[in-house]
Design brief:
Elements: H1 6-18, H2 22-48, E1 49-53, E2 57-61, E3 66-74, E4 80-87, E5 99-104, E6 109-116, E7 122-126, E8 129-133, E9 142-146, E10 150-155, E11 169-175, E12 182-192, H3 204-210, E13 214-223, E14 226-231, H4 242-262, E15 267-272, E16 278-283, H5 286-297, H6 310-317, E17 326-331, H7 336-347, E18 351-356, E19 369-373
Parallel strand pairs: 2-10, 14-15, 14-17, 17-18, 18-19
Antiparallel strand pairs: 1-3, 3-6, 4-5, 4-8, 7-10, 8-9, 11-13, 12-13, 15-16
């Protein structure tokens, strides 16, 4: 209630009590009733409002055009005009976004969309929503705060990568031309016996039924589970373009997650150099992929001064590595400790690829490991 609005009210009470003229008292009484009606109307309008958010958590890639929507509902019968609606962006909105001037019909609602700033990855909390209004005579302005919050996760932008998944572990969802990935649980068909076929492949029931020897053929399938070892220790990166290279390394990890996730492969992530330790064990499915991207979105850099390689860091944590696992090493440079760790992983029959996140492809990459260089910008991550 504004202080100036109390002056006419006090003046009306004074006229009604101390001026014994009937006309003056009737005018003062009318004004008092008008004030009382305005007060009740303002309380009614304030109590009739309700706010709902479309999503409690919204995921969006960095650089995309996204909106966060919420609805304001008028549960009363009276229309409301000149409402000021404010949604606190807390880093997601620009200065002018999230403020609206609107009217609401009786028993009606309006939906508002706030463009999200997705230039910086991270997890942000949006809210609360404040609504300001007044009665038709502007005697009793009011304000109501709705403690309604929503999370916005801006995960690093990723782009699908061309995958050559011809190595892995037996029994999966990817077809392979290699006979070493033959899956005895997936019968492909039955054909006539050929000279040299092993006897254990003969289907005796089909042979007895047809009167000729029949041989079973099985599908060749594999799985290519991916383990990402991401080294984000800032001191390991060159000072020039350090922040750009670190962010690009995170985006490259996101691209790998999206590509292998769309291929329905198991995913795991280990990060060194983050302020909060990040390790996500193997999992499969869309929900697991989104969880990994959410972890990447919230990474903040912290240089712990670790001297061990990221493979030794993984071994010290007791991270399991299965035979046939694809391991992507996103590291700024190659040293002796990392080379010895790569040799150990290769002996465990894993598929290795090294992505040089420092901007320069190092020399001395072993022949069993594919090497790539991380570019500083653009949709082409690797060269």
């Amino acid at each position: 209630m504004k202080r100036l609005s109390l002056l006419p009210l006090a003046f009306s009470i004074f006229l009604y009590l101390f001026i014994p003229l009937k006309a003056v008292q009737m005018a003062a009484l009318f004004l008092l009733l008008l004030y009382g009606f305005s007060f009740i109307l303002s309380r009614y309008m304030r109590a009739s409002l309700k706010v709902e958010r479309a999503r409690l958590t919204q995921f969006c890639p960095n650089g995309s055009d996204e909106q966060l929507e919420f609805s304001v509902i008028n549960r009363g019968f009276l229309p409301m005009s000149q409402l000021i609606i404010l949604d606190s962006g807390n880093g997601c909105y620009s200065a002018e976004t999230g403020t609206f001037l609107s009217d609401l019909p009786g028993r009606g609602s309006r939906t508002f969309g706030c463009p999200i700033q997705t230039m910086v990855r991270g997890k942000f909390q949006v809210g609360p929503v404040k609504i300001k209004g007044t009665d038709p005579l502007n005697f009793f302005p009011w304000e109501k705060t709705f403690p309604l919050y929503s999370s916005v996760v801006v995960y690093p932008a990723g782009h699908p990568l061309p995958l050559l998944l011809n190595e892995g572990e037996r029994g999966g969802r990817i077809k392979s031309p290699s006979m070493i990935y033959e899956d005895r649980n997936q019968l492909k068909g039955i054909r006539d016996y050929r000279s040299g076929d092993p006897l254990k492949r003969i289907n005796w029931k089909a042979s007895a039924r047809t009167g000729a020897l029949k041989t079973m053929e099985f599908s060749n399938t594999l799985d290519a589970p991916l383990l990402i070892l991401l080294d984000l220790s800032p001191a390991q990166y060159p000072l020039k373009h350090r922040y750009i290279l670190l962010e690009r390394a995170i985006e490259a990890a996101a691209s790998l997650i999206i590509s292998y996730g769309e291929a329905k492969q198991k995913l795991s992530l280990l990060v060194r150099g983050a302020e909060k330790p990040v390790f996500v064990p193997f999992g499969r499915g869309y929900g697991h992929m989104v969880y990994l991207l959410e972890e990447l979105a919230q990474i903040s850099f912290h240089d712990g001064g670790a001297e061990e390689s990221i493979i030794d860091y993984m071994m010290a944590r007791g991270t399991p590595v299965e035979c046939g696992t694809h391991i992507s090493l996103l590291v700024p440079f190659l040293d002796e400790g990392l080379l010895s760790g790569m040799e150990l992983l290769f002996r465990r029959r894993t598929t290795l690829q090294l992505i040089a996140t420092g901007g320069v492809l190092p020399s001395g990459i072993p022949p069993y490991c594919r090497g790539y260089t991380l570019s500083e910008y653009g949709m082409e991550y690797y060269a």
